[in-house]
Amino acid sequence: MLNKLMPVLFIVSLQSAFATEGYNAGGDFDLDFSLNGNGNTLFAPFASLGTGQVMAGMDFDGDSLFEILFSVYESNDSSGSFSGKVGCYLYEANSSGGYNYVWHFSTSSADSLPGIFYGDMDADSLYEIYFGVSPLVVQGSVTNSWGTHIFEQNAAKTFISTPTLVYQYGRTSADNFNPAGYELADLDGDGKVELCTVDPGSGELSIDALATTGLDGSSSFTNEYLDTLDGSAVYNLDVLDFDVDGKHELWVERNLNMIVLEACQADSYRVAVALDLDDTNGAYKRNGLGFADADGDGDLDAWFPMSNGKLYYMNNSVNDIDSLTLGANEVTNSGFENGTSGWAFDSEASINFDVVATETFAGDSSLKVSGLSPQEPINPEEPEAFGAVANIVNTTVFAPGSQFVISAEFFTSSSDSLNQLGSYGALFAMYGGGNLDSMDFVSFKNATTDTWHHLEVLCTVPANASIVNVGVMYVQPSDTSLGSFYVDDVHLKAVSEGGVDLLAEKHFTEVLTFGAASSGSDIGDIDGDNKMDIIAGTGAGEKIVRMEFMGGDPTAAGNYSVNPILESIGAPADWYFPLDISDNDLDGDGELEVVITNRNASEATQAMILVLDYDPPFTFDRTGQKNSEHLAPNWSIAATATGHNSRTAIGGMDMDNDGAQEVIAVDYDGNKVVVYEYDAANKVFDLVWSSPAVATNNYGYQPQIVGVGDLDSDGRQEIIFPSSQSDAEGYHIYEWDGVTSSDSYGTTFSAVCQVEVDTCCAGDGAGTESYGSVFRGDHHRMTIFDIDNDGRQELITFPSKGDPRGTLIVSLNDGQNIVHNSASSSE
């Protein structure tokens, strides 16, 4: 059975965050655009409206304005029927935050959800749009033009209103073949792109290639594969090389039952995997499956957000060597018991190889490999490499595409360690033939001395390889980087069973629940932080949920941050269908978008297409450019732009009256405060002012607080903070110069309030060495407020050092005014 963790149900609701009816975005996303088809003449032929599939981020015409392609159909909300008119529409971003209509095609009737895709099947640098229309049979007669409608661009890079070709797969309408899921790829490596098409109702899969050179109205196709897969609701196709054996696979997901076809040779395919995991629930994704290297081990894993609202994770361990079935060892004299028999050595370094009995892993012998003592210095840019090559008994098993595992035991002694100035050993497989010169290898480097280490690597013979050599190698970057290592028990074993064929139920784990249901999802790195985001709709649940994988074990629910990013509130009810993370930034703001379809778009207030734009929070930067440092996802560290150890940051004021708000942070580095101002054009906070660094002070870890006020009521804001600066202990006050947009608060303080110093920390009095010496300036709280309603603000502090201690309320003397940059002068 499927692996299941302890059930975790994430109750996601935005009701507390969103108070308005309609479409409400959140979780660092903005609703940038919505397309309402009601009252739009483009969609007037449709009696009711729904959208069923979307692809976003293409640039068909090469104008750097990216497009959105989506399907439209007449939906029946009450019956769930999808019979009626169908259409395919193309919109393009207009560089002003909106999208303009470009092209569309529609038919009078169809019997199911249409499929869409795009590509360049004939490699003529002109894109094609693929639009699948199912047969609609009424009283025994076909009433529509069914099949895959292929629209190829003309020389002007535009699409015309009639299809270039309608492909019907050599079938008749009686076969009721509904082309609704597509993939384009050169599956079998013969240089021709195959069109892969699946019928979701019957599960029938067709793989076809062009039989003609180009694509036009007279083009024909050759069928390479046709079979009916078990199950229904098959919409999801994807092509990749899951097991990295150089052969493409076509993945077909029907509910959570997996069919994987692998190319055997040109125009020939085999079913490598047929898993029956879940006959009820599927990942209704439509634009490929969710593959990514989740665990950082160099291979592709996958996530499946299911139609029942559960997230499954598939771990790719099919190439783990422990999982493979291996043949017999092909290396003769693998333990060097017969000296060097069966081994060949670089002629110029043969004296650096020696069969010894001093260090052995098994048997009585091993091969010792020592560094060179060259006559000429070695260039570190071109290190010396010399090796020993093993004789292989049966070379016929190593045809291109075949796999084998090489392994050996390695040892280095503390008395002559290999770990000297960059030298290292390697176990390798080297391939040659024609123009081919490549290698698989694993290094023996910086290893613990005086113990044996097992090294192994899975190798795949590349295409066109006619020579396969395996052996061990010494790599020496300089004439002084010496040392030696020992090798024993060298094995080479052909893989008799492995790769994608080993995919099994055990590789799938139920991770978490993100909703009651789901009708579409996509996977990508929406914020560019190298952490994959799974974006999924909850269907009639009217939410779009973001599940960001935060790292660690992908099967642990606690390693995901789960948050809603869109919610529909109020009537009429929406039903979110498949969505797409854009391949490119649609609106030019540097961030990707999520484009969402809506099954229920017939009412006047309902959108057919919604575009969510990732809009990260502000970043802080001293140079005016975006800062990539983040304390947590989408949050930036303010004070480290200038130093370290900030205890307080305040924001929201506009001290220089220029309409741009500021943030002030304290900074131990220099014992100062820094001011950032929001730059709306670049969506960053720029460093605009810093108080002078303090050379000498009584205590290093200050200031820890900062405030803003107008103590003299002259309309010019002051920045106020405690300082233990020697000879100027007290509350430093920096007043704005009064010039709009100046961001100028002085190169020295405007005043120093020393009432607290006089009260608690005067020592032998003003002017003496002890005056203020115990004033640390490390206060945790102060308040600036007109506490007695006399029209003048008071500075309220809490002395915690010296004597007495308590609450201190201070105001400026009557008739005095703080003067900008005056170093404590007043008037």
Automatic annotation (TrEMBL):
InterPro entries: FG-GAP, Galactose-bd-like_sf, Integrin_alpha_N
Gene3D superfamilies named in the record: Galactose-binding domain-like
Record keywords, A-Z: Signal
Annotated PANTHER family: ATP_GTP-BINDING PROTEIN (PTHR46580:SF4), SENSOR KINASE-RELATED (PTHR46580)
Name the record gives this protein: VCBS repeat-containing protein
